[in-house]
Design a protein that fits this description.
It contains seven helices and 13 strands. The chain is an alpha/beta fold. It has a nine-stranded mixed sheet with strand order 3-4-2-1-5-6-7-13-8, with helices on both faces. Strands 9-12 form a two-stranded antiparallel sheet. The structure holds manganese (II) ion. Manganese (II) ion binds next to β5.
């Protein structure tokens, strides 16, 4: 099996190294990752400048682009072989609820959706411990499980791991995405010439964080596994919008 590993924190991030190391005994691992932290890049492609690829180790490459660029290149012609799955991470921070819309970690997994096996985004809900070792072990276990018993190939698994020693994890839970409150306001500041600059504020706390959500699983010490899909169609609204269009004034 060939596994492509990427992330959005950049090729020097601790989580990426840990993830690649833990998967190497299971598969032939190729790493293609951004040259710097591109957290929040979502599913963006770089179209205004050429993208370059630089080796930094054995089957390890960094790219002056986004996580989506990295995976897109890797599965669309950079190599003369195909990968079987993409594992993205380990992100330095949660990707819970609405976070998945902005996440480059999740985007890298999404970009691998046409490969043969489900893809996986792994995030550590970082607190004090920074237990990347725990998240790496969880990723390894899930990949082994996929090798033994494959899931539907069109699936993206969004995995969040509590920042705990492995022995303190309470287990695995399948979850739905919760929702966050509106994020904190932008932080206004000034550059050295007195012109206004802004920083995007931190994400809001969990709003829909009840039973069954990813937030709840993490709060109770479980690994959260949310199956995602790319289809954004609001199927339940097709009839309503159809009637609305039919009844429109000429
Ligand atoms: Mn990140």
């Amino acid at each position: 099996m060939r596994i492509l590993v990427s992330n959005d924190d950049g090729y020097r991030a601790e989580g990426l190294q840990r993830l690649a190391d833990v998967l190497r005994p299971l598969a032939e691992v190729t790493v293609v990752a951004p040259d710097r932290n591109r957290s929040g890049a979502s599913n963006s492609l770089t179209l205004d400048v050429p993208v370059r690829v630089f080796p930094f180790g054995d089957r390890m490459y960094y790219v002056n682009g986004t996580p989506t660029d990295c995976v897109h290149l890797a599965v669309s012609g950079l190599f003369d072989f195909d990968h079987d799955m993409v594992v993205s991470g380990i992100n330095d921070g949660a990707n819970l609820g609405d976070d998945v819309l902005y996440s480059g970690t999740v985007a890298a997994a999404v970009e691998g959706r046409f490969l043969g096996l489900p893809t996986m985004a792994v995030s550590l809900v970082v607190r004090q411990g920074r237990h990347f070792d725990t998240a790496a072990r969880v990723a390894c276990e899930l990949v082994m499980r996929l090798q033994r018993s494959p899931l539907d190939s069109a699936m993206i698994l969004n995995v969040n791991v509590p920042d705990l020693p492995y022995e303190q994890l309470r287990g695995f839970q399948v979850t739905r995405l919760g929702q966050r409150h509106k994020s904190e306001p932008v932080v206004k500041s000034a550059d050295p010439r007195g012109r206004a600059v802004y920083w995007v504020g931190p994400a809001g706390e969990g709003a829909d964080a009840g039973e069954g959500t990813d937030f709840d699983a993490i709060a109770r010490g479980f690994v959260s596994v949310t199956p995602l899909q790319v289809d954004l169609t609001r199927h339940s609204a097709l009839a309503e919008v159809g009637e609305w269009l039919a009844g429109r004034a000429p």
